[in-house]
Design a protein that fits this description.
With about 250 residues, this protein is mainly beta. It contains two helices and ten strands; from the N terminus they run βαβββαββββββ. Helices cover about 5% and strands about 35% of the residues. The strands form two sheets. Strands 1, 2, 3, 4, 7, 8, 9 and 10 form an eight-stranded antiparallel beta sheet that branches. Strands 5-6 form a two-stranded antiparallel ribbon.
Length: about 250
Amino acid sequence: MANFLNWSWTSAHVQTEVVNGEYITSEAALIAAGPPRLDNISNPFRSARAATTGALDSAPIILQPIGLMSNFQANQNRNVNRLFEIGSARAYMIPGRHFAAFSMGRIMFFGPSLLRMLYAWYPDANMTFPHGQFEVGTKTSNSIGPGGSWPTIGGEDAPGFGPSTAKIVGQQNNVDNPKNNADFWINLTSIVFRQSLGLCMLLKASNNKTYGACYLEDCMLEGHGFGLDSNNVVITEAVNGQFDRIRPIHILGV
């Protein structure tokens, strides 16, 4: 990077380390849903190397990439208090509380809905109702960390719906039947959505070089919606909520 002494506005850019093709693009970004805290991704889902370095590598982990996403946004805000004193015109700046929120939109298709994707790692062992073909299969324990566990969900508190004989999403006896799609999670009053989740974001440059990654911890959903428009061919659904903090992480071997 050019400094003040060798800066030349006629012959060089301000940041001389900027290389063509190394810009960050949404085409090379990935959003994945997982457990509430980064520390919840533990053995056997993290390798011994990752457990000691705090980094994630190619070991199997319980993160579900979310496809067909049209937009994603994460915002952080901190209140700042300005304090004055008698006898001076100067002010003291006191940092206040930190607030963070996120939102995302996704195109609907005949398969797992956005809410189902966000809670894809929810332990199948705790599902006492049929929930279609979309199963993670890697998370069978109730444990989500010290002193925490996922509740058992069933009956009218189910986030989705579907008959017990449905073995494939939207199909029964080889006949298409939309009411069988138990992966259409839409009941935001379900106790499932009283549980928090985590979001992992991986960013790459347009030349496929890894730029960085982070984990949004303790995400809680506040709203979900979808709408129809006669001028739009596709239907999108969206969620918004708040999260506790962003933890930067280093992805090994990516």
